[in-house]
Write a structure and sequence with these properties.
Elements: H1 11-23, H2 33-45, H3 49-62, H4 67-79, H5 83-96, H6 100-112, H7 116-129, H8 134-146, H9 150-163, H10 168-180, H11 184-197, H12 202-214, H13 218-231, H14 236-248, H15 252-265, H16 270-280
Helix pairs in contact: 1-2, 2-3, 2-4, 3-4, 4-5, 4-6, 5-6, 6-7, 7-8, 8-9, 8-10, 9-10, 10-11, 10-12, 11-12, 12-13, 12-14, 13-14, 14-15, 14-16, 15-16
């Protein structure tokens, strides 16, 4: 079974950017670090990243330790997938003035670089500063998954969902962990919640098809997989899951067609090759 972790920009960063953009002066770039930082935020919000970077550089010429500008440089580096630079910029901001948004950005950059233990520390400290933020707990849980600590991940996902029981990202990523642990009944509960919160998402339908198939509810699994494939026709994992459901229904010729579709999309997936081989043995 393939799966996709969902990540998103930290809510604190989005809200801070929106507030700053709304309250920023309408004049041209000022000559103080605060004014230049706010101008940089406006440029970033409008997608003018080179202009945002120029504002930051000017602000840092005036005040090399301006924490909000260091953070903004980190966000620009994250957007450009320059993760080493992001770690350096946000790390400097955090050392100057530890705040939840800085720690969340630092954790994201460290995670992208595969520095999972360090990312865990950053997200853990962020949750200590802002303990009622479901998004931060979800990010912390996702790193626990990467560190192969499912018990800790489950604890953190459950805490996130206690804070916000209708938080799609936490419910979906929690369901993926439950699928990996073969706790299919529990996974189905959270995938049903995801479908209730956001109808017709291919990710949810595909995950639910896996849970249903493993609960021997093959027709329902096939239905969900077909709906997912209509939404995301180039997804090899979804094609494989359609084939797997058809295989369980002993519709082997149809199953082979879907395994071939999956291999056309992605030729080296071991699970698909194994499914095709086992189906050929039944034909």
């Amino acid at each position: 079974m393939g799966f996709t972790w969902i990540e998103q920009m930290n809510r604190h960063e989005r809200r801070a950017a929106a507030r700053k953009s709304q309250t920023a002066p309408s004049a041209t770039d000022g000559d103080t670090p605060d004014a230049l930082h706010e101008a940089g935020l406006r440029h970033m919000s409008a997608g003018r990243h080179p202009d945002a970077q120029r504002c930051c550089q000017r602000a840092l010429e005036l005040d090399a330790g301006h924490a909000d500008t260091l953070q903004l440089m980190g966000l620009l580096s994250l957007h450009a997938k320059q993760y080493d630079a992001a770690i350096e910029w946000v790390g400097r901001a955090n050392r100057a003035d530890p705040k939840t948004p800085y720690l969340a950005s630092l954790g994201a950059a460290l995670e992208q670089q595969g520095l999972h233990e360090e990312a865990l520390k950053a997200f853990n400290k962020a949750t200590q500063i802002t303990p009622d933020d479901a998004e931060l707990w979800t990010k912390l849980a996702n790193v626990q998954v990467l560190l192969r600590r499912p018990d800790h991940a489950i604890r953190d996902f459950e805490h996130a969902l206690r804070l916000n029981p209708r938080y799609w990202y936490a419910a979906y990523n929690y369901a993926l962990v439950l699928l990996q642990l073969q706790r299919f009944e529990e996974a189905l509960v959270y995938l049903n919640l995801c479908d209730e919160l956001q109808l017709n998402r291919a990710l949810t339908l595909n995950g639910r098809s896996v849970a249903l198939r493993n609960l021997n509810r093959f027709e329902e699994a096939l239905s969900d997989s077909r709906q997912a494939q209509a939404l995301d026709p180039a997804n090899a994992d979804i094609c494989n899951n359609i084939g797997a459901a058809l295989q369980k229904l002993t519709r082997d010729e149809e199953a082979l067609e879907w395994f071939d579709r999956a291999l056309d999309l992605q030729s080296d997936v071991v699970a698909v090759l194994n499914n095709k081989a086992s189906t050929l043995g039944e034909v």
